[in-house]
Automatic annotation (TrEMBL):
Protein name (record): Cupin
Occurrences of domain Cupin type-2 (ranges): 37-98
Amino acid sequence: MYVITTSPDHVTTTPNAAMTGLAAPSRGSSELSTWQVDMPAGATGPEHSVSREQVWTLTAGSLEVTSDGRTQKVTTGQTLVLPADAPRRIHAAETFRAHVAMRADGVVSVPGEEEPRVLPWAR
């Protein structure tokens, strides 16, 4: 059993959001990673795909996700399931907070980049 206490060392900040790592292999989990995403209103992440299914549960605010040419709004209390390898772009319609879960071995691919990116908060 592991009890994880977040710390500033678990936070990764990008130009669009802050990700706070929760469960991950580096913190005791063997199969899953979970993290919190905080994105300010008006921010939009890059188009990308993830090699593993992700489950996002919004705990505050709302987001818009565009995937496969369709845009869907997700609001507080709703859960979004994004399939593996589906291109997506996340936009903060308003400031939001979400908890995300996926298998710990997922990587991100961004169009135009040769190598996939590791998610440091999920390792």
